[in-house]
Write a structure and sequence with these properties.
The structure is a homodimer of 276-residue chains. Chain A has 276 residues and is of the alpha/beta class. Helix content of chain A is 42%, strand content 15%. Chain A has a single domain, classed as Divalent-metal-dependent TIM barrel enzymes (TIM Barrel, Alpha-Beta Barrel), CATH 3.20.20.150. In chain A, strands 1-2-3-4-5-6-7-8 form an 8-stranded parallel beta barrel, surrounded by 5 helices. In chain A, strand 7, helix 9 and strand 8 form a beta-alpha-beta unit. Chain A is globular and about 50 Å long. The first copy, chain A, starts with 10 loop residues before the first strand and ends with a helix. Chains A and B meet through helix 6 of A and helix 6 of B.
């Protein structure tokens, strides 16, 4: 396992962790904190335009782990599903434009009015199959991130790493998985499914599960403040062959989003070295 | 599949659904609503004493699906784990005393200060193994209920039906599973694991998943108000051989717990006939 105790060169910051910053602010804050990689959200790079965003990122010498996020394939009708594919094609172009290593995807939840989660999963499978030729042509890997089951209804019907692995095996080249400890730590099949994912692991994300957790979306913790054994999961992921950056993604409406971004990044670096 | 459209004789009420009532109040309210089975919580029967609780329930002609709830095997030290076993032995006696068909168990979460979920699961396995001889001697089946992964840290490290099935297969006779749609509806392995559980299914619980869900514990919905395809899951459970009562268990701090219990039970009956 890599030794991060005196080295945070593998740390990447997902821009949602310091949500108040625009792309320029994020780039400057990462420079001040000695952070060499980012995972920006689409709205942030769209706001300055893709060519300009790409230039800013390259000029700063930053790696981009993922462009975050596309996917969201489920919809109530065929027109909605086509619109999702079209939007995902634009996301592939954006990811290429900013030099991202991959495009992060989440599945999407149940379409409005639907109770058919198996049908939603079929829509995700079909959406990925339709998108993959474009991703392959652009040489842009798709990183499918299973989300916590508590998001299954409104965000991501692909709820387990096993589910994501099944889809990847069916769909073939050009797609892999992103593993976020927050979404998978509870899974009794985790060790087996990480080993099965192997070289298909395209991203590894960290934060922490707080006890109690007061919100299903925006109450994630800083690494070390919760109950996830992050090092154990990182060991599994690295044993499977992963040696790319580790993204910190913390949605925290009542704590970290309220703090000074420089303080947040400083603590991310400290915790990355001590807890991750 | 059983036809409930004009028949709620299979409806059982978990006392947490009408939390304001004591045992006498629950029995009387069920009589007024024509409900023939209950699943009382332990504190409620302990409050009147087990022999008296048993008499009241028998005199009213009510079935008891489960005594709710015991388990909670995880603890920071051996003394704590022994105390849990002792308490579970008392729960078995209580379940026998009130004529319950089974004793409902939840696993327990991570011990205080622990990040070791595999270790917690081992504690649950060892606790069940220690308890089973007493359960068998008392002819009281143990119904292990996997809970939603969002409860893994503080309530139940057994997070999937597959996990519960594995434990049952390892431990042998005297233990089965209780399946609550709320806890399992998101699981891509659900159909397979329900079929695998087969005759081991000792209980089936219904409520609904609301969108949005605003609390991890006390924001469950009335059947039909959320996005769970309850009938499909009931079909799987009945195809596996289950033909016992269906428990309604709704934790709802901001809605159903604030309403008049007679109104709540009336709506439970309506929804049981139309949605379950």
């Amino acid at each position: 396992m890599r030794d991060f105790s005196n080295d945070h060169s593998a740390l990447a910051i997902n821009s949602a962790t310091v949500k108040s910053l625009d792309l320029k602010g994020l780039i400057d804050a990462c420079a001040r904190a000695g952070i060499g990689a980012i995972a920006p959200w689409r709205d942030q790079v769209q706001a300055v335009g893709i060519p300009q965003a790409g230039r800013m990122i390259r000029d700063a010498g930053l790696k981009v782990t993922s462009l975050v996020r596309a996917g969201l394939f489920t919809a109530a009708d065929a027109a909605g599903r086509k619109a999702a594919i079209d939007d995902n094609r634009r996301a592939i172009e954006e990811a290429v434009g900013i030099g991202a290593a991959n495009l992060l995807l989440i599945a999407g939840g149940l379409p409005p009015g639907s109770k058919d989660i198996a049908g939603a999963r079929q829509q995700v499978r079909d959406g990925l199959a339709a998108l993959l030729p474009h991703a392959r042509a652009a040489r842009m890997p798709l990183a499918l991130e299973p989300l916590h089951p508590m998001t299954a209804a409104d965000r991501a019907c692909v709820t387990t790493l096993g589910n994501a692995n099944d889809l990847c095996e069916e769909l073939g080249d050009g797609i892999g998985v992103a593993i976020d400890v927050y979404h998978v730590w509870w899974d009794p099949s985790l060790a087996r499914e990480i080993a099965r994912a192997g070289r298909r692991i395209l991203g590894f994300h960290v934060c922490d599960w707080l006890v109690p957790t007061t919100d299903l979306l925006t109450d994630r913790g800083m690494m070390g403040d919760g109950i996830i054994d992050i090092k154990s999961i990182r060991r599994m992921v690295e044993d499977a062959g992963y040696d790319d950056p580790v993204d910190v993604e913390i949605f925290s409406a009542n704590n970290w989003w309220k703090r000074d971004p420089d303080e947040v990044l400083r603590i991310c670096v400290e915790r990355f070295r001590s807890v991750v």
